[in-house]
Every structure is written in structure tokens, then in C-alpha cells.
């Protein structure tokens, strides 16, 4: 399949979670507490897209799936897309657009506070994801876009700080994040020792 | 064996009459007609909405309990707030023994066997023992109680329970002067409760809860065996659960197998997991936040996605007139 077609397929697939959510909402399948369900659903998919984006490079190196590299930007932008939707749904459905209480919520809830740097970082990465910006930033582009690792750690702490009755989510996301970041640390160590 | 004679209760343990009567003043009920005054659930069901028929269709309880529930007195002080529909009450709740998603209890409780059932009553009582549920309920008249339920997670419902006052049961077992607290334990059986096998659960099974004796003896505190005029569905804590309407929902322990009266404050499950987040008292209190979210508001369920039903939370879940005096010398910010 030519890259252009693959691009369209990945684009449509990436919109599927949103389509599922809209269908569920329209047919009253979000349960008795749809507000909470929407925020949780989008948040979960944000993390999935973050992990998928982080899997591209390891898949290229380990499974020789280099074609994926051409789609990394789109996957990253979908991570940003769902992260922003997650935030908007929190404002609309949990906060009830009562921005006067948002300040107090931020100060009192570390798990919400730490999403601010994460979302700012994601927006910066999104803005600088174009080919033009890549050229302009040169070597610094790679450095800047390593910021996604910080986002991943913040996202995991965001989940960890909300553990209540089960560690299942925190462990699932923790193991996957750790694996995807761990392999990079391993490569980085290898490269360093090779240089010595 | 059940002893029907009332035990000697210290006067300090008896709820003052003005608190007991305040329930009537408080409940802003609209129905007080002579007709309904004498009505039982089976006859008042003539006026029932679709939730009552849904409960009827889903009902799996044994015949003896069905008959007893049919004779329950209707709640004459019904709340004016509308009832949460049967589907939401039974399809969206926490019962972590079945899983940690809100839909797990309904999905994974089909094989749970609430009958036959035994409850052990032990500790500082004159008549300890293990009793069949059927014997426990002998001589007890059931009644409907329409209560608000406020979950600590900031959602709430209005549920028509069928049950009886905990005090009426406890008194039959002759609590002695050492009975300062009452603790409750849920069944531990990993065959029936799949999540009790999970290594990822934060809960140290079995689930445990407790009340101070004056809270346990308060007339608002009930043990429920039914809802919407039928036996309790498995996912809602069949066959016997506690309902303490002025406390967060997690205090209202489900599927009780043991009730113990003791001198000292018992260890309770959520308090054990996160003491900074869940106090022993867990009274609904809009001025004391959960560290991770505000308790000033709640989502009254079912809530529409674009017509969110967000309402202010009331002190003691709206039961302040009846229960505030229990805590008059207590710093509720410290003993949350």
C-alpha cells in the first residue's frame, strides 16, 4: 500500500475511538454517569495514543517496521488531539464550565496540576511537528521532541495518583511506559559505551 | 434461636425521642393521606412506575422473602426528589468484590448465591450466635425507606430501600455495656467474588465497616433486604446490607455475614487503604473535600451528558436535623 493510502487508513482508524464515543453517547450507552464515562474514555485513549506513538521507533528498530516512521507525526498529533479533548471534556463535564473553581482545584489536586506542563509540552511538540519547523530547529528538534518522554512520565503519574480500588490501570500503563522508555535508556547506554 | 425480649440498653445508647421524631418533620413528604398511610408495598405498587415493574421482572428472591417484602409498610415520608430509575440503581454502582468498573457488579454477580444465608452476631452481646437469615427476620416488620445515597466519588442517587432498623435487630441480642461500636464484615469467598482473587486490588479482603453504637442505633440506620419493592439484586448487596443515609456510600456495607459489637473502634476497609482520604466517620460533608476532588457538589444520577444534573451537596446528605446532634462535640474537619 502506498504511504498516502496508509495515511488515510491510519487517520480513519485513529478517529474510531471518537466515533465509538459519539455513537455510545447518541444511543445512551454511556451508563448512568455519562460525564465521568466520557472523560475517562477519552483519557484512556489519550494514553493509548501516547504509547502507540512511542512504539514507532522501537518497532522500526526491533521489528524492522520502518514504514511506520512516516506516520509517527500523525500518531503524535492524535495524542495531542485526544489530550485536548480530554481536557475540554473535564472542563465541560466535571467542572461544569465553572472556571472560578478551577484555580482552587489546580492548587489542591496534584494529579490535575501536573497535566498543565504535559499539555503545554504536547502543544509545543504539535506546533513544531511540521517539516518546516524540523528544518528550522535542526539538531534541536530531536532534543525538543524528547519532551514526549516527560509527557509519558507525567501521564503515568496522573494515573498513579488516581488509584483507588485497583492498581490494574496504573500497572498496565506503568509497565508499557517503562518498557518503551526503558528500551530507549538501554539504547542510549549502549551508544554511550560504544563511543568510549 | 431469636430472643424477642428487648435487652436492657443503657439510657445513653437510646436515641432521644426528638431525634427520632425529627425524621418526620424533616422528610418533606407530600403523601400523607389515610389511604397510603395503611398501604403496604404490594398495594401501593398499583401506582408504581416502570422501575417497580423492572424490579419485579428481575426478582430472583426466595418466596418467603418476597412475601415478607410485599407486606412492607410504604414510606409515608417519601422524598420529593425523584427516584433514581431501577436500571441506574442496579447497573451503576461499586461492589469491588465483583470488579472495579461501575458496570462490573451487574455483569459479574449472576452466579452469586445469596440464599440460603447466615449471619454471625458476636462480641459484646448476651446472645451471640450464627443465625439463618430467615430466623433473623422472624418477627421483624419490613418497611420502605426512600433515602438519598451519596457516594464519596461525588455522585448520588435516590433509592427506595426495603429494610428494618438496625437498632431493632441489635437490641434482640442484648448488647452489654462494652458495646461501644458495631462492626460488619462482608462474605469472603473468591469463588463467588472474582475480584477477591485479584493481586492488583488495593483492598485487604474481606470488606469491613463499622459504626459507633449511637450511629448504629439511630432510627435512620437500616439493614436492607430489598429495593424497589423486591428482594435486593445480587449487585446491590444481597441478601442483607447496611444503609446509613447520612454517610458516604462506602459505609453501607453489602452482603453481610458478621456483625460484631465491641468496645473499641473497629478497623474499616477504606480507612485502612487511605486514612487521609476516608475517615472512620465518613459523614457526608460539603465543607471537607476529598483530597482528590471537591465534596461541595454531586452529580445526581442518571445525569444527561449535555444536561448535567450537578447539585450542591447537603450537610449530612440532607439529614442534619436528625443526626447533627450525634456529633455536636466533634470536630468534623478532624473526624471526617
Question: What is this structure's SSE topology?
Answer:
The complex is a heterodimer of chains A (196) and B (336).
Chain A: H1 3-26, H2 34-63, H3 72-94, H4 102-108, H5 110-113, H6 115-127, H7 131-137, H8 139-145, H9 147-160, H10 168-195
Helix pairs in contact in A: 1-2, 2-3, 2-9, 2-10, 3-6, 6-9, 7-8, 9-10
Chain B: H1 17-26, H2 34-37, H3 41-44, H4 50-58, H5 63-70, H6 86-91, H7 104-108, E1 118-123, E2 129-132, H8 133-136, E3 143-150, E4 155-165, H9 166-172, E5 181-186, E6 208-212, H10 213-216, E7 222-227, E8 230-231, E9 241-243, E10 256-262, H11 269-273, E11 297-300, E12 310-312, H12 320-323
Parallel strand pairs in B: 1-10, 4-11
Antiparallel strand pairs in B: 1-2, 3-4, 4-7, 5-6, 5-10, 7-8, 7-9, 11-12
Structure summary:
The complex is a heterodimer of chains A (196) and B (336). Chain A is mainly α.
Structural features, described:
The complex is a heterodimer of chains A (196) and B (336). By secondary structure, chain A is mainly α. Chain A has one domain (3-195). Chain A contains ten helices and no strands. The N and C termini of chain A lie far apart (42 Å). Chain B has a single domain (11-280), classed as Sulfite Oxidase, Chain A, domain 2 (Alpha-Beta Complex), CATH 3.90.420.10. By secondary structure, chain B is of the alpha+beta class. In chain B, 21% of the residues lie in helices and 19% in strands. Chain B is built from twelve helices and twelve strands. Chain A binds chain B through residues 25, 30-36, 38, 93, 96, 101, 105, 108-109, 111, 161-168, 171, and chain B through 84, 87-88, 91-92, 94, 96, 100, 102-103, 155, 195, 198, 200-203, 289, 291-294, 297, 299, 301-305, 308, 310.
Amino acid at each position: 500500500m502506498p504511504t498516502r493510502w496508509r495515511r488515510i487508513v491510519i487517520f480513519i482508524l485513529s478517529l474510531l475511538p471518537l466515533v465509538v464515543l459519539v455513537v455510545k453517547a447518541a444511543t445512551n450507552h454511556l451508563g448512568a454517569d455519562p460525564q465521568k464515562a466520557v472523560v475517562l474514555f477519552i483519557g484512556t485513549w489519550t494514553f493509548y495514543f501516547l504509547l502507540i506513538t512511542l512504539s514507532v521507533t522501537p518497532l522500526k528498530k526491533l521489528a524492522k517496521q520502518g514504514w511506520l516512521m512516516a506516520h509517527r507525526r500523525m500518531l503524535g498529533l492524535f495524542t495531542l488531539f485526544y489530550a485536548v479533548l480530554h481536557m475540554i471534556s473535564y472542563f465541560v463535564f466535571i467542572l461544569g464550565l465553572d472556571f472560578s473553581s478551577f484555580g482552587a482545584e489546580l492548587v489542591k489536586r496534584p494529579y490535575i496540576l501536573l497535566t498543565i506542563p504535559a499539555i503545554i509540552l504536547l502543544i509545543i511538540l504539535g506546533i513544531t511537528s511540521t517539516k518546516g519547523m524540523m528544518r528550522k530547529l535542526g539538531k534541536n528538534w530531536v532534543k525538543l521532541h524528547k519532551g514526549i518522554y516527560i509527557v509519558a512520565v507525567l501521564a503515568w503519574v496522573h494515573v498513579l495518583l488516581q488509584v483507588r480500588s485497583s492498581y490494574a490501570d496504573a500497572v498496565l500503563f506503568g509497565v508499557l511506559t517503562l518498557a518503551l522508555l526503558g528500551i530507549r535508556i538501554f539504547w542510549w547506554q549502549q551508544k554511550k559505551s560504544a563511543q568510549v | 434461636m431469636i430472643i424477642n425480649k428487648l435487652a436492657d440498653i443503657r439510657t445513653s445508647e437510646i436515641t432521644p425521642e426528638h431525634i427520632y421524631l425529627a425524621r418526620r418533620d424533616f422528610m418533606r413528604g407530600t403523601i400523607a393521606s389515610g389511604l397510603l398511610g395503611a398501604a403496604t408495598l404490594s398495594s401501593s405498587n398499583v401506582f408504581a412506575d416502570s422501575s417497580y415493574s423492572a424490579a419485579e421482572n428481575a426478582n430472583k428472591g426466595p418466596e418467603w422473602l418476597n412475601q415478607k417484602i410485599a407486606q412492607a409498610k410504604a414510606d409515608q415520608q417519601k422524598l420529593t426528589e425523584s427516584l433514581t430509575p431501577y436500571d441506574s440503581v442496579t447497573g451503576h454502582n461499586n461492589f469491588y468484590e465483583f470488579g472495579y468498573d461501575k458496570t462490573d457488579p451487574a455483569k459479574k454477580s449472576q452466579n452469586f448465591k445469596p440464599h440460603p444465608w447466615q449471619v454471625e452476631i458476636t462480641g459484646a452481646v448476651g446472645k451471640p450466635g450464627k443465625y439463618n437469615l430467615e430466623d433473623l427476620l422472624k418477627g421483624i416488620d419490613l418497611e420502605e425507606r426512600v433515602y438519598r445515597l451519596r457516594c464519596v466519588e461525588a455522585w448520588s442517587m435516590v433509592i427506595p430501600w426495603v429494610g428494618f432498623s438496625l437498632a431493632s435487630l441489635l437490641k434482640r441480642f442484648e448488647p452489654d455495656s462494652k458495646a461501644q461500636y458495631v462492626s460488619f464484615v462482608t462474605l469472603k469467598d473468591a469463588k463467588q467474588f472474582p475480584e477477591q482473587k485479584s493481586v492488583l486490588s488495593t483492598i485487604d479482603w474481606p470488606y469491613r465497616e463499622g459504626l459507633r453504637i449511637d450511629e448504629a442505633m439511630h432510627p435512620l440506620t437500616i439493614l436492607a433486604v430489598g429495593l424497589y419493592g423486591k428482594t435486593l439484586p445480587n449487585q446491590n448487596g444481597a441478601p442483607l446490607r447496611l444503609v446509613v443515609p447520612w454517610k458516604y456510600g462506602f459505609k453501607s456495607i453489602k452482603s453481610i455475614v458478621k456483625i460484631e459489637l465491641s468496645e473499641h473502634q473497629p478497623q474499616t476497609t477504606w480507612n485502612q487503604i487511605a486514612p487521609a482520604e476516608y475517615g472512620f466517620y465518613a459523614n457526608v460533608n460539603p465543607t471537607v473535600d476529598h483530597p482528590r476532588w471537591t465534596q461541595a457538589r454531586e452529580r445526581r444520577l442518571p445525569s444527561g451528558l449535555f444536561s448535567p444534573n450537578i447539585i450542591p451537596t447537603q450537610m449530612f446528605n440532607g439529614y442534619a436535623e436528625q443526626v447533627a446532634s450525634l456529633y455536636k462535640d466533634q470536630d468534623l474537619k478532624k473526624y471526617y
